[in-house]
Amino acid sequence: AQKVTQAQTEISVVEKEDVTLDCVYETRDTTYYLFWYKQPPSGELVFLIRRNSFDEQNEISGRYSWNFQKSTSSFNFTITASQVVDSAVYFCALSEARQKVTFGIGTKLQVIP
Amino acid sequence: SAVISQKPSRDICQRGTSLTIQCQVDSQVTMMFWYRQQPGQSLTLIATANQGSEATYESGFVIDKFPISRPNLTFSTLTVSNMSPEDSSIYLCSARAGGETQYFGPGTRLLVL
């Protein structure tokens, strides 16, 4: 069975601070995929990144970066120099190959101006 | 990637009635999914809809309550039948495209009175 744990339910930071959203996963498969999605107040789920289990290389995209560590079963997401527009609920998710996606409970991030 | 649209974007319905939600994808996809997101909660998969076969429902969801159609590779509908206030949620359509990534529609906000 697959499981995703996002221990932080709500985080508040002041604008321009860095923030890391934690994600820990469980799976028995050796082939799996990890995702992060952003859900702003408008409600739409926006795809941010996908990582497969064979690629542990960290990724940076602008102010966003992701740290994938198989040794600790973690896939953490860092926002550098946070902005008010980053305020949203962020979901970490996991799927085994061709299987359904399991979502964490989400972390609500509030960036205070 | 895939661009997904949903109709209606929101609706207020009376108890005992039914609502059909439409989902349109801008490209042909094999797998489409329907999720429910109750207020402040994570996403829960209702069913997987593959073209040419019956939808596969998750535990706790039944076809009589949530009938799904998948007439072609770009379109699906979800009907919420005999609604009660407990059905008030956001209903999200999703499609798998570009490999293992699921993309989401903007959601349908349903309020049942």
Task: Please supply descriptive tags for the structure shown above.
heterodimer; A: 113 residues; six-stranded mixed sheet; four-stranded antiparallel sheet; 0% helix; globular; B: 113 residues; mainly beta
Can you walk me through this structure?
- The complex is a heterodimer of chains A (113) and B (113).
- Chain A has 113 residues and is an all-beta fold.
- Helices cover 0% and strands 55% of the residues of chain A.
- Chain A has strands spanning 3-5, 10-14, 19-21, 24-26, 32-39, 46-52, 59-61, 64-69, 74-79, 88-96, 101-103, 107-112.
- In chain A, strands 2, 5, 6, 10, 11 and 12 form a 6-stranded mixed beta sheet that branches. A 4-stranded antiparallel beta sheet of chain A has the order 3-9-8-7, with no helix packed on it. A two-stranded antiparallel sheet of chain A has the order 1-4.
- Chain A is globular and about 40 Å long.
- By secondary structure, chain B is mainly β.
- In chain B, strands 2, 4, 5, 6, 9, 10 and 11 form a 7-stranded mixed beta sheet that branches. In chain B, strands 1-3-8-7 form a 4-stranded antiparallel beta sheet, with no helix packed on it.
- Chain B is globular, with a radius of gyration of 13 Å.
- The relative contact order of chain B is 0.34.
- The mean pLDDT of chain B is 94.
- Chains A and B meet through β5 and β6 of A and β9 and β10 of B.
Short description:
The complex is a heterodimer of chains A (113) and B (113). Chain A contains no helices and twelve strands.
